[in-house]
């Protein structure tokens, strides 16, 4: 309704070029421009959350991506409501709010095209249009990342010793989420496989895995600096998207490696810790737990790194329980995260911890088996056999819709 009201008020029209009989001041024009692009951005995220088509579109008569007042760029940013341990403080940091907002707007334009051509819940696009969207928006996304200023770009194997301003972390996480949403349908779609060569096939897998690991690295730095209570919904959704990739890996390979289980476990625990502030996350957790139950995986069970490996975890809870006890099986499969410790800072990145843990009132025990995401950030290190990509093409990812009251339950998960 709010987005429709924006259209009714004419905020979707360039107020300087098409003002008509109304003479807007420079301040009015600036406010209307900012409001339009803010709504444009949030419309795309809400479309993902609730499984609907975007409402607000950028047209030739839309306000330009130009902000006259850039004083927010040089302001000093300070986290509000965060109490740091005694003797520690958040260092003075330039906000870069204006440039971050503008880059977020241009990123949302790419996300808009991805939603329209791949995830539209109403219109199914022909295969040729989807392939064309993947190529075009892939180029646009690479260009966007390459042109991102260094003060806004966070590289997972070169993270700062403290978390940058929250909006900068959010920008990077949404970039990686968009990257996953672009490449994941190609990873899981057999009809499209024949139209690409082996290098392109491998690239989809590399992009998904590296972005998923980057998300948990950035999220880990964020929550250890600002705490779980300051995690916004867009960051939680990024974690959910990353979890979908780790789950896909297990589903496709029929094998749960220690590193993949640990990263998936981290995502689940992270979502558990923020579900009270973001109730919509309950749906995301339910979707993940449902898939784990199908695989008979107890995600909170301590990892066995002995001779048996972890492949047996997919079949441990099958015939012995029998079909007459489904409720008991579900209870054994999904446990509370209270028996799991979030790994120490540096487990998903190579930077030292800037701050100590925030007290959350929850007790955890440690399971140290982790994979350094720096290994995943080097795309040239991947040597993916065609059979591996073939395995992914036979599984379907979880839905992008995390709402229990969305605009329908047929929101496509892979664009096919």
UniProtKB/TrEMBL annotation:
Q: Where is the Xylanolytic transcriptional activator regulatory domain?
A: 1-70
The record's SMART domains line, in alphabetical order, gives: Fungal_trans (SM00906)
Its BP terms in the Gene Ontology are: DNA-templated transcription
- Tell me which UniProt keywords the record has, alphabetically: DNA-binding, Metal-binding, Nucleus, Transcription, Transcription regulation, Zinc
Biased composition, Polar residues: where in the chain? Answer: 308-341
Q: Where is this region: Disordered?
A: 308-370
Origin superkingdom = Eukaryota
Q: Which GO terms describe its molecular function?
A: DNA binding; zinc ion binding
Q: What PANTHER family would the database entry show?
A: TY1 ENHANCER ACTIVATOR (PTHR31313), ZN(II)2CYS6 TRANSCRIPTION FACTOR (EUROFUNG) (PTHR31313:SF85)
What this protein is called in its record is Xylanolytic transcriptional activator regulatory domain-containing protein
Provide the species name: Emydomyces testavorans
């Amino acid at each position: 309704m709010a987005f429709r009201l924006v259209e009714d008020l004419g905020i979707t029209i360039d107020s300087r070029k098409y003002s008509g009989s109304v003479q807007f001041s420079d301040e009015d024009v600036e406010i209307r421009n900012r409001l339009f692009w803010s709504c444009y951005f949030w419309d795309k995220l809400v479309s993902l959350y609730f499984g609907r088509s975007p409402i607000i579109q950028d047209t030739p008569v839309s306000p330009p991506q130009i902000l006259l007042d850039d004083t927010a760029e040089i302001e000093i940013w300070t986290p509000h409501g965060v109490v740091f341990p005694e003797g520690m403080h958040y260092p003075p940091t330039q906000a870069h709010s204006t440039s971050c907002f503008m880059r977020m707007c241009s990123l949302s334009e790419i996300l808009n095209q991805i939603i329209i051509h791949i995830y539209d819940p109403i219109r199914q696009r022909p295969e040729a249009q989807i392939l064309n969207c993947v190529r075009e928006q892939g180029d646009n996304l690479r260009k966007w990342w390459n042109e991102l200023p260094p003060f806004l770009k966070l590289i997972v194997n070169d993270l700062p010793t403290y978390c940058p301003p929250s909006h900068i972390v959010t920008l990077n996480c949404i970039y990686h989420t968009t990257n996953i949403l672009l490449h994941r349908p190609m990873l899981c779609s057999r009809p499209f496989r024949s139209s690409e060569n082996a290098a392109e096939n491998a690239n989809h897998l590399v992009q998904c895995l590296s972005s998923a690991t980057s998300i948990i690295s950035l999220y880990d730095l964020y929550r250890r600096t600002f705490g779980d209570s300051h995690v916004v919904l867009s960051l939680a959704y990024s974690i959910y998207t990353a979890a979908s990739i780790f789950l896909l890996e297990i589903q496709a390979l029929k094998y749960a490696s220690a590193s993949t289980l640990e990263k998936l476990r981290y995502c689940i625990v992270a979502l558990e810790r923020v579900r009270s502030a973001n109730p919509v996350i309950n749906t995301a957790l339910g979707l993940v737990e449902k898939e784990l139950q199908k695989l008979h995986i107890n995600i909170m069970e301590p990892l066995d790194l002995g001779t048996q490996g972890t492949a047996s975890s997919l079949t441990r809870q099958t015939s012995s329980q029998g079909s007459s006890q489904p409720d008991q099986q579900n209870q054994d499969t999904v446990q509370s995260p209270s028996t799991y410790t979030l790994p120490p800072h540096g487990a998903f990145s190579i930077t030292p911890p800037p701050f100590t843990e925030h007290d959350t009132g929850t007790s955890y025990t440690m399971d140290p088996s982790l994979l350094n995401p720096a290994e995943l950030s080097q795309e040239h290190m991947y040597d993916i056999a065609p059979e591996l990509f073939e395995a992914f093409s036979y599984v379907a990812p979880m839905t992008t819709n995390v709402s229990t009251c969305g605009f329908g339950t047929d929101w496509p998960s892979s664009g096919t």
